[in-house]
Amino acid sequence: MKIHRIRSVEEPAYKQLLHIYRDSQPENELKGPDQVAGMIERPEYFFLAALRDDAVVGFSISICFAGSDAALIEYMAVAREFRGQGTGQGLFKETVQFGSIAERTVIIEVDSEKSPSDDHVDRVRRKNFYRRLGCREVEGLSYIMPPVSSGIPPPMDMLVYAAELPGTLAKSRIRTWLESCYRQVYELSETDPRIQSMLKNLPENVRLI
Questions:
Q1: pLDDT tens digit string along 116-165?
Q2: If residue 206 lies in a helix (H) or strand (E), which one and from where to where?
């Protein structure tokens, strides 16, 4: 498996990435084609394709936040026919070690498994996938993902990854990450009331579990 950074919508690999993107993501978490095309033009975004024999078998889309020590893996998926073969695991490891992403703490938004849902088994599986790779959950943070389509995103949790994670994170640091995410990913104000709603019940030092 090779990792290739896609830098333009004109690359053939971009169309293959879009196909996997549409096939693998819930409808209420999908951005429109124009939004995705706009993201790839921004230098802080990393569109990484996992290639086998020049075919895209998986991808990740990450952003390194300006003015922050964090990066967000916004989307990551593997083509259906290549799942269960270690492709996702390899893609994650390559992503967190790629370029300036490697210098940062990596944030992952995941659907929460804490409440009953039709896809509960899949939610547990996805979170366990990231845990096996060394990610840990920000305890007590119920992440509110802003809508990116006409649908409402499900309840979510926030996971973090770094080569060496501390036992706790300062609440102020988490606030900076949330503000960066809302402003730079969702084009919302850093004073959006949902940020304070997420933080209000957290202690000053938040455990990673």
A1: 888 889 899 999 999 999 999 999 999 999 998 878 888 999 999 999 99
A2: strand 205-207
Contacts of 102 (CB under 8 A, 6+ apart): 96
Query: Please, what are the domains in the chain?
Result: 2-207 (3.40.630.30)
In SS3 terms, the chain reads as CEEEEECCCCCHHHHHHHHHHHHHCCHHHCCCHHHHHHHHCCCCEEEEEEEECCEEEEEEEEEECCCCCEEEEEEEEECHHHCCCCHHHHHHHHHHCCHHHHHCEEEEEEECCCCCCCCHHHHHHHHHHHHHCCCEEEEEEEECCCCCCCCCCCCEEEEEECCCCCCEEEHHHHHHHHHHHHHHCCCCCCCCHHHHHHHCCCCCEEEEC
Please state the pTM of the whole predicted model.
0.94
